[in-house]
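Late entry, written up from scratch paper. The run itself happened at the end of the previous shift, but nothing got recorded in the book at the time, so transcribing now.
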Amino acid sequence: MKGKQTVVDMVRSLAVIGLVVGGIYLVIPHDDKADPTRVVDYRVESLTARRAAPYPVAVPVGLPPEWRATSVGYTRKEASAWHLGFLDPAQQYVAVEQSADASDKYIAKVTRKATATGQTQQVGDQVWERWDGEKYDALVRHEQGYVTVVTGTAPFEQLGAMAAALEFKQGSQGS
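Output as recorded:
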Protein backbone atom coordinates (compact mmCIF):
# COMPACT_ATOMS: atom_id res chain seq x y z
CA MET A 1 0.00 0.00 0.00
CA LYS A 2 2.78 2.40 0.91
CA GLY A 3 4.57 1.70 -2.43
CA LYS A 4 1.46 2.61 -4.46
CA GLN A 5 1.04 5.85 -2.51
CA THR A 6 4.66 6.84 -3.25
CA VAL A 7 4.17 6.24 -7.00
CA VAL A 8 0.91 8.25 -7.00
CA ASP A 9 2.63 11.12 -5.17
CA MET A 10 5.48 11.04 -7.69
CA VAL A 11 3.05 11.17 -10.63
CA ARG A 12 1.21 14.12 -9.03
CA SER A 13 4.50 15.94 -8.49
CA LEU A 14 5.52 15.39 -12.11
CA ALA A 15 2.12 16.68 -13.30
CA VAL A 16 2.50 19.84 -11.21
CA ILE A 17 6.05 20.39 -12.49
CA GLY A 18 4.83 19.85 -16.06
CA LEU A 19 2.08 22.44 -15.62
CA VAL A 20 4.57 24.97 -14.21
CA VAL A 21 7.03 24.41 -17.08
CA GLY A 22 4.21 24.64 -19.64
CA GLY A 23 2.99 27.87 -18.08
CA ILE A 24 6.49 29.36 -18.18
CA TYR A 25 6.85 28.35 -21.84
CA LEU A 26 3.57 30.08 -22.72
CA VAL A 27 4.40 33.25 -20.76
CA ILE A 28 7.96 33.79 -22.08
CA PRO A 29 7.89 35.44 -25.52
CA HIS A 30 9.61 33.57 -28.33
CA ASP A 31 9.66 34.13 -32.06
CA ASP A 32 9.97 30.98 -34.12
CA LYS A 33 10.35 33.08 -37.29
CA ALA A 34 13.24 35.15 -35.93
CA ASP A 35 16.40 35.09 -38.02
CA PRO A 36 19.21 33.42 -36.04
CA THR A 37 21.93 34.95 -38.25
CA ARG A 38 24.49 36.90 -36.25
CA VAL A 39 25.49 39.97 -38.25
CA VAL A 40 28.97 41.44 -37.69
CA ASP A 41 30.35 44.91 -38.26
CA TYR A 42 33.54 44.62 -40.28
CA ARG A 43 34.58 48.29 -40.46
CA VAL A 44 37.18 48.22 -37.68
CA GLU A 45 38.62 44.88 -38.80
CA SER A 46 38.92 46.10 -42.39
CA LEU A 47 40.76 49.26 -41.33
CA THR A 48 43.13 47.19 -39.22
CA ALA A 49 43.71 44.71 -42.05
CA ARG A 50 44.32 47.53 -44.54
CA ARG A 51 47.05 48.92 -42.29
CA ALA A 52 48.68 45.55 -41.68
CA ALA A 53 48.34 43.65 -44.96
CA PRO A 54 51.11 43.74 -47.57
CA TYR A 55 48.46 44.00 -50.32
CA PRO A 56 45.35 46.13 -50.99
CA VAL A 57 42.55 44.60 -48.88
CA ALA A 58 39.24 44.01 -50.65
CA VAL A 59 36.09 45.26 -48.92
CA PRO A 60 32.68 45.54 -50.61
CA VAL A 61 31.17 48.98 -51.07
CA GLY A 62 27.55 49.70 -51.89
CA LEU A 63 26.05 46.25 -51.36
CA PRO A 64 22.30 46.28 -50.70
CA PRO A 65 21.33 45.77 -47.01
CA GLU A 66 20.07 42.26 -47.82
CA TRP A 67 23.74 41.22 -47.96
CA ARG A 68 24.64 40.52 -44.33
CA ALA A 69 28.19 40.15 -43.05
CA THR A 70 28.46 37.08 -40.81
CA SER A 71 32.20 36.64 -40.24
CA VAL A 72 35.39 38.68 -40.45
CA GLY A 73 39.03 38.10 -39.64
CA TYR A 74 42.61 38.94 -40.46
CA THR A 75 45.64 36.94 -39.43
CA ARG A 76 49.29 37.61 -40.15
CA LYS A 77 50.34 34.09 -39.19
CA GLU A 78 48.78 32.47 -42.25
CA ALA A 79 50.41 34.59 -44.97
CA SER A 80 48.43 37.72 -44.04
CA ALA A 81 45.03 36.16 -44.69
CA TRP A 82 41.90 38.35 -44.88
CA HIS A 83 38.42 36.81 -44.62
CA LEU A 84 35.00 38.42 -44.89
CA GLY A 85 31.89 36.21 -45.04
CA PHE A 86 28.34 37.17 -46.06
CA LEU A 87 24.90 35.75 -46.59
CA ASP A 88 23.45 37.00 -49.87
CA PRO A 89 19.74 37.90 -50.31
CA ALA A 90 18.96 34.23 -51.16
CA GLN A 91 20.67 33.06 -47.92
CA GLN A 92 23.66 31.64 -49.80
CA TYR A 93 27.17 32.03 -48.42
CA VAL A 94 29.68 34.33 -50.15
CA ALA A 95 33.18 34.97 -48.80
CA VAL A 96 36.03 37.24 -49.77
CA GLU A 97 39.37 35.56 -49.08
CA GLN A 98 42.75 37.19 -49.66
CA SER A 99 46.27 36.11 -48.89
CA ALA A 100 49.89 36.66 -49.74
CA ASP A 101 49.90 32.87 -50.28
CA ALA A 102 48.67 32.69 -53.87
CA SER A 103 49.25 28.94 -54.20
CA ASP A 104 46.69 26.49 -55.54
CA LYS A 105 46.86 24.81 -52.11
CA TYR A 106 45.60 27.98 -50.41
CA ILE A 107 42.86 28.45 -53.02
CA ALA A 108 41.76 24.82 -52.64
CA LYS A 109 41.60 25.34 -48.86
CA VAL A 110 39.37 28.44 -48.95
CA THR A 111 37.17 27.07 -51.76
CA ARG A 112 36.77 23.65 -50.15
CA LYS A 113 38.67 21.90 -52.92
CA ALA A 114 37.29 23.71 -55.96
CA THR A 115 39.41 23.39 -59.11
CA ALA A 116 40.15 25.74 -61.98
CA THR A 117 37.79 25.31 -64.93
CA GLY A 118 39.91 27.15 -67.48
CA GLN A 119 37.03 29.60 -67.96
CA THR A 120 36.96 33.26 -67.01
CA GLN A 121 34.29 35.73 -65.98
CA GLN A 122 34.39 39.42 -66.78
CA VAL A 123 33.52 41.56 -63.75
CA GLY A 124 33.64 45.24 -64.60
CA ASP A 125 37.03 45.81 -66.22
CA GLN A 126 38.63 42.79 -64.52
CA VAL A 127 38.87 39.18 -65.60
CA TRP A 128 38.45 36.53 -62.89
CA GLU A 129 39.19 32.81 -63.19
CA ARG A 130 36.26 30.48 -62.54
CA TRP A 131 36.80 27.60 -60.14
CA ASP A 132 34.17 24.89 -59.69
CA GLY A 133 33.68 22.66 -56.68
CA GLU A 134 31.27 20.26 -55.01
CA LYS A 135 30.56 22.61 -52.10
CA TYR A 136 31.83 26.03 -53.20
CA ASP A 137 32.38 27.72 -56.53
CA ALA A 138 34.82 30.61 -56.79
CA LEU A 139 36.10 33.57 -58.74
CA VAL A 140 39.88 33.91 -58.41
CA ARG A 141 42.11 36.85 -59.28
CA HIS A 142 45.90 36.63 -59.03
CA GLU A 143 47.78 39.88 -58.53
CA GLN A 144 51.43 40.68 -57.90
CA GLY A 145 52.17 39.11 -54.50
CA TYR A 146 48.63 38.10 -53.48
CA VAL A 147 45.41 36.41 -54.51
CA THR A 148 41.77 37.43 -54.10
CA VAL A 149 39.10 34.72 -53.99
CA VAL A 150 35.34 35.28 -53.94
CA THR A 151 33.87 31.91 -53.01
CA GLY A 152 30.81 30.25 -51.53
CA THR A 153 27.59 28.35 -52.11
CA ALA A 154 26.06 31.19 -54.14
CA PRO A 155 25.88 30.95 -57.95
CA PHE A 156 28.52 32.63 -60.10
CA GLU A 157 26.14 35.54 -60.72
CA GLN A 158 26.16 36.40 -57.01
CA LEU A 159 29.89 35.78 -56.70
CA GLY A 160 30.29 38.26 -59.56
CA ALA A 161 28.07 40.79 -57.76
CA MET A 162 30.36 40.59 -54.74
CA ALA A 163 33.49 40.84 -56.88
CA ALA A 164 32.05 43.92 -58.62
CA ALA A 165 31.43 45.61 -55.25
CA LEU A 166 34.99 45.11 -53.99
CA GLU A 167 37.14 48.14 -53.31
CA PHE A 168 40.86 47.43 -52.96
CA LYS A 169 42.74 49.73 -50.55
CA GLN A 170 45.79 49.72 -48.30
CA GLY A 171 46.15 51.70 -45.10
CA SER A 172 48.87 53.86 -46.59
CA GLN A 173 46.39 55.00 -49.26
CA GLY A 174 44.27 56.86 -46.73
CA SER A 175 41.64 54.28 -45.87
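The mean pLDDT is 90.
(Scratch paper discarded after transcription.)
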